[in-house]
Amino acid sequence: MSGLDEGSDGRLRCSWGLSAPDYAAYHDEEWGRPVTDDRGIYERLTLEAFQSGLSWLTILRKRENFRTAFAGFDFDRVAEYGAAEIDRLMADAGIVRNRAKIDAAIANARATRGLVAGGESLAALAWGHRPEVEGVPARMEDLPATTPESTALAKELKSRGFRFVGPTTAYALMQAVGIVNDHMEGCFVRAGVEAERASAGG
Fold first, then answer.
1. Among the four residues 5, 58, 69, 159, which has the most C-beta atoms within 10 Å?
2. For 136-191, what is each residue's pLDDT tens digit?
3. Active site residue 29
4. What CATH fold (topology level) applies to the domain 4-199?
5. From the candidates 16, 23, 31, 48, which is the catalytic residue?
6. Contact yes or no for 22/59 (Cβ under 8 A)
7. Global confidence as pTM
């Protein structure tokens, strides 16, 4: 079946999950599993924005550096970043030194803090764009780059002050945090993700 490969443990996985050693744990243990807290959503949104135009492998290998640089993705702390912190981040070779993306990470922290201060939730906003009907991808070619829901999510996030989040980044976020389950049909992780989404109310 296109889109699947057999791992050394004999189990079938999405082929990208075996394309590099760094991907295996991320595929098996994290990608698509439901994330329902604001800090967790902010972290994935930040990483997906930094990934834009780059390989996800680059971001994955720098992830711990990003966590250190952005205060464990504590959006209340990042929201207070100013010129000194921007200079520090621009000098940090352990992350992606892109001024527009750094500015966006700080703006998005402030936007997240604003949502929470107003009694709302970034997680609830994101999960509110879950599609009513989902397909079950059998081939990598079945995976879209954008969907009507990701387009709507990107539009709403932008209206709330978020930056660097177009429909493609929004869909990557939806995949990463389990708003959609894009593990291939036959991937051993898929059923576990569905069970976790059901217990999380997703």
1. 69
2. 999 999 999 999 999 999 999 999 999 999 999 999 999 999 999 999 999 999 99
3. no
4. Endonuclease III; domain 1 (1.10.340)
5. 48
6. no
7. 0.96
